[in-house]
Amino acid sequence: MSYLVTIIAFIIVFGVLVTVHEYGHMFFAKRAGIMCPEFAIGMGPKILSFRKNETLYTIRLLPVGGYVRMAGDGLEEPPVQPGMHVKIKLNKNDEITHIILDDHHKFQQIEAIEVKKCDFKEGLFIEGITAYDEERHHFNIADKAFFVENGSLVQIAPKHRQFTYKKPYQKFLALIAGPLFNFLLTLVLFIGLAYYQGTPTNGIADVAKDSPAEKAGLHSGDKIVKVGDYKVTDQKSLRSATDKIKENATHVTVKRDGKEKTFKITPKKETEQLTKTKKETHYRLGIQAETEHTAFKPILEGFERTIIAGKLIFTAIVSLIASIFTGHFSFDMLNGPVGIYHQVDSVVKTGIFNLINFTALLSVNLGLMNLLPIPALDGGRILFVIYEAIFRKPLNKKAETVMLAIGAVFVLIIMILVTWNDIQRYFL
Q1: Domain boundary at 257, 292, 327, which?
Q2: Which of 189, 217, 295, 307 is deepest in the core (most CB within 10 A)?
């Protein structure tokens, strides 16, 4: 039963993260007028699919990411290549309205053609030898034209609907929107948790057994107003004060039954493993803070926690990159889908709120990792757009295609190595 719960939790976490990320791309792409032929969650063979307007929505087998296919983004391969035999339907202007790739159709007055040359991005034409006269002809593709395959119509994007021909700022927004939506998801989750759980105050809800607070005589219901010379108004200022005091004995002033009392206390040192490469040391009194429910504090709490999470993940990524050059890099520092599944299995046992918190951290991680300047990732493609904006011309198409291919192969190899390493760590 626990395995089933973990699987369901993993599917939900993975699905939410990838859907939000890819929806961000599609949202801004469509606002810019870019055609999006496919919105995919997962990779590999299709499990489920449905079409709405011009976009095919698919769920694919392998939980290793997702994508939004934008027309003319340099990553798509047209289904028609020179040497193929296809059928075409023409309008009254001898422009192609349908390119028929199978026999499952009911079109009449169609022409068979052997394709010799074609361009579906810039020139938008097919040139080939027609069966009826065995002569070579040039046919332009109509502004509204379709590939017909397996009974489905897939629209061919005209130039004004392609990513390539949009302005740099429109391309930039379409690319950065994925990470941006991940950051927004983190913010929403943290705000939601703060509204439900309340925001911590300087009041004491509970005191841990054998903690410095218990030994000093503090108990639930007390409100801490001063630590040493530092004034305390909330949980944040309390943490700051104890971190400054460290393990030195100090006086803590609390309000109890309307009166102030002072106790001598020595904070306890605690080291927390934040990431595989980063530890953080704090000094605690051993109390659980009271919470309060207000209208606006949860919003501020959400923003604060999002910024803290962003700094934490960013620092971990920088440390990871630095470890490559210092010789301390290990694949144990990375987690693929298998590693994330293992983490979900651990977190889900501690409760739904910890799982939501974990999802928020993963969302920040996904957003920042996608901003790395690797050509196959959003960050690398954003660099191409910045180049175009600065030099007033796009990067050479052949060079861009080669770099995208190299980047994709690099990411694929890393994913395979990380996944195999995770399998060895957790299951072998």
Answers
A1: 292
A2: 189
DSSP code string of 86-114: EEEEE-TTS-EEEEE-SS-----SEEEEE
Phi, psi torsion values for 249, nearest 5 degrees: -65, 140
Same domain, 331 and 388: yes
Q: Are residues 413 and 318 in the same domain?
A: yes
As for how many domains the chain has, the answer is 3
Which H or E run contains 298?
helix 297-326
253 and 137 fall within a common domain: no
pLDDT band at 54 (very low <50, low <70, confident <90, very high): confident
Q: Quick one: average pLDDT of 2-22?
A: 90
Mean pLDDT over the full length of the chain: 88
- Strand partners of residue 68: 39
Residue 350, domain member (yes or no): yes
Task: Report the predicted TM-score, pTM, of the whole model to 2 decimal places.
Answer: 0.86
**Where residue 235 sits, what CATH number does that domain have?**
2.30.42.10
% the chain with pLDDT above 70: 98
Which range has the worst mean pLDDT, 255-264, 300-309, 320-329?
A: 320-329
Candidate from 52-61, 183-192, 276-285 with smallest mean pLDDT: 276-285
319/321 Cα distance (integer angstroms): 5
Same domain for 211 and 126: no
Yes or no: say if 240 and 230 are a contact pair by the CB < 8 Å rule. yes
- Our measurement of the distance from residue 95's CA atom to the centroid of its chain's CA atoms, rounded to an integer in Å, reads 41
49 in a structural domain: no
Cα distance between residue 282 and residue 326, in whole Å: 28
Verify that 304 and 288 share a domain, yes or no: no
Q: Pick the catalytic residue: 22, 38, 301, 400?
A: 22
Whether 281 and 379 share a structural domain: no
pLDDT at site 274: 62
Element holding 263 (H helix, E strand): strand 259-265
Strands 38-52 and 85-90: unpaired
Q: For residue 384, what are the domain limits?
A: 297-427
Tell me if residue 134 is catalytic.
no
